Structure formats: structure tokens, C-alpha cells
Amino acid sequence: MSLERQVMFWVVALLIFGALLWLLSPVLLPFIAGMALAYLLDPLTRQVERTGIGRAASALLVIVFIIVLFAVVIMLVAPILGTQLFALIEHIPKYAERVQAVIIEPNRAWLERAFGSPGGDPGKSIGGLMAQGASWIATFLASLWAGGRALVSLFSLLIITPVVAIYLLCDWDRLVTTIDSWIPLHQRETVRGLAREIDDAIAGFFRGQAVICLILGTFYALGLTFSGLHFGFLIGMLTGLMSFVPFVGAITGFLVASGVAIAQFWPDWASIAMVIGVFVVGQALEGYILSPKLVGAKVGLHPVWLMFSLFAFGYLFGFVGVLVAIPLAAAIGVLTRFALRQYQASELYTGTRPR
Q1: Rounded CA gap, 289 and 25, in Å?
Q2: Does residue 115 register a pLDDT over 60?
Q3: Distance (Å, whole) CA 192 – CA 211
């Protein structure tokens, strides 16, 4: 098969995959979540299997353990987070008014020049910017919700996802062997090498970033709580959770925490600086210790590419797109680097015919 026909085949296959993902996205959520859960739990299932327990029993034990652990964590944390979340939502209008009042005090003429013309109302300009930002966030969240709500309920997600994960864990080796047998013989080693690179990138990122999220969530929650910030535990835990996407969690958490700190502590600069200091220390901890040790550069997922992938796939395919964004981003990255290596070794790049 010529190179042109191979490229055409994979382009058509990619288009078909994208079309199916778009058409079936309303019903794919529990199945995609089950596949992701099975992929993440396969190493743990192998460890249990090495003790002499059968594959099916090992998969069932691992799934039950994860469900029990998840339920215990929810029972311990959910009451605190739920109470603070509803209270924070109730206080958001008051905090916004307080922050706006602090910003547009008459002795801050620089703000009038930045957000409004002389004689204008900078408060209205700031309010307009806040309204536009809120509208954009609401639209994005609505697209995620719309992509996963049709024919899929929370009940089906909680029931179908573990069942799919158990079946996939039981048949994981057979599934991998079957897919491997479909690969053309003369390209099998190349495809296997690319698959190993993709697996290393995905597994390395998920494992490392999950641990980072747990550590940062605990650090931010405790730090903001001890600083006296209202809803500090909630903001800290959400910041750690959103840190799965590098920089996004820290920036979002910093903006929310700073806004609440200004509304709560102003004009006590020491307390505000303490809140800011928690994020400074958290970012130093993540950037200089956690990320280099737990994720490293070999993963090959640049933060900008990662953010673009999450937003793009989330916008196109809803919440299902968010779930598949990181694996697809890793695969596209590996394949792009492979294509560049092939190009740099080709006659088109070197200008000489290979001997």
C-alpha cells in the first residue's frame, strides 16, 4: 500500500471515529468512564492477580475496594463541601458587590482610566466584564452538560460504569491481544512502539497528576482554612481538583480566593497577603518539587496543548469529550512527533536519496 493510500485510510478512519463520537456522545459517558477506570485499575488488578487470585476475582475485589473507598471519602468530605458550596453560592453577590466597591473607590483614579473614560462609570465597565466572563463560563458548562445529559442519568453512570470496568478488566489481556492481531505484520513493531509511547504518556500523566491533585488539594484546603478565609476548605479542595489541568486550577483558585479575601478582610492587607502566600507556596511546591518528580518531562503533554485539548473536545463532544481529551491529546502528540521524525529522515527534508 502506497503512502498516499495509508494516509487516506487513517484520515477516513479518524473522520469516522469523530463522527461516531459526536453522534453517540449522549450515551457514551458511562462506557468511556468505565474504559478509563479499567485502564487505571489494570496495574492494581495485576498486582492482586499475582497473589494467586483469578483474574475475574481480582477485578471484582479491586472494583469493590474502589467503590467502598469512594463512598467513605464522600461520606467524610461531602457534608463539609456541600454546606460550604451552598453558602458560597449564596454569598457570591455580596462578595462581588464588596470587591467592586473596593475597586472603584474615588481615590483610585487609575481604575477610571483603565476601565472607563473620564466621567464614565468604571463600576459599570467592571460589571460588564464580570457579566461577560460569567456568560462565557455558563455557556461552556452548559455545553458540557448538554453533551452528557441525554439518555444518561447519574444512576446509569454509577451502575453501568463499574460493570463496564469489571468486564474490561476481566478481558483486558484478551482485548489487547485481539487488537494487536489486527495490525499489519510489516508495521507491527512500529505500531507497538508508538502504542508503548502513548501508554507511557497517558499513564505517567494520570498517575502523577492524580497524586499532585491530592497533595495540592490537601495543602490548599488546610492553608486557606488556617488563614481564616471563609469557605477556605471548599476553595482549596476545588483548586486541587482543578489542578489536574496545569495552571488552570491554581489561577482559578487564586482569583476566587483573592476575591473572597478582599471582600472579607479589606483593608487588612496582612490577612490578604496570607491567602496569596498560600498560593505562592503551593505553586512553588508544584513547579519545583511535585511536577518534576511525579510527572516529569517524558510525558510530553505541554500545558497549553492540554488546555486546548480539554476546551476543544469539551466544546465539541460535551463531558465525554473532556474524558477522552487527554488520551487523544497524548496519542496525537506521539503521532505528531513520529511524523516529524519520519519527515526529517525523508528525502524531502534531507534533499538526498536514502541508500
Answers
A1: 38
A2: no
A3: 28
Angstrom distance (rounded) from CA 16 to CA 22: 10
What residues contact residue 209 under an 8 Å CB cut-off, 6+ apart?
243, 244, 294, 295
Residue in the block written with cell 491567602: 275
- CB-side neighbour CA atoms (13 Å) of 307: 10
**CB half-sphere exposure, 68, CA atoms < 13 A:** 6
pLDDT of residue 296 exceeding 70: no
Cis peptide before 122 (omega within 30 of 0): no
Contact, 201 vs 300, CB < 8 A? yes
Run of H or E residues at 270: helix 269-285
Measure the CA–CA gap between 15 and 172, rounded to whole angstroms.
Answer: 26
The whole model's pTM is what? 0.67
d(CA 249, CA 202): 20
The pLDDT, as a whole number, for residue 2 is 57
Confidence at 294, pLDDT banded by 50, 70, 90: confident
DSSP class of residue 181 equals H
Band (156; pLDDT cuts 50, 70, 90): low
pLDDT, average across residues 263-288:
85
Residue 183 has φ and ψ, to the nearest 5°, of -75, 135
- Separation between Cα atoms, residue 324 and residue 322, nearest integer Å: 6
Residues whose CB falls within 8 Å of the CB of residue 300, separated by 6 or more in sequence, listed in order:
201, 330, 333, 334, 337
The residue to which cell 534531507 is assigned: 350
Q: How many CB atoms lie within 10 A of CB 34?
A: 21
- Long-range residue pairs from 197-200, CB within 8 A, at least 24 positions apart, any chain: 197/334, 198/327, 198/330, 198/331, 198/334, 200/298, 200/299
Average the pLDDT over 135-159 and give the result.
Answer: 54
Q: How many other C-beta atoms are found inside a 10 Å radius of the C-beta of residue 108?
A: 13
Q: Does the pLDDT value for residue 125 go beyond 60?
A: no
Which residue type occupies 152? V
HSE of 150, CA atoms in CB hemisphere, 13 A? 15
- Compute the distance between CA of residue 347 and CA of residue 352 in angstroms, rounded to an integer: 5
Q: How many residues does the chain have?
A: 355
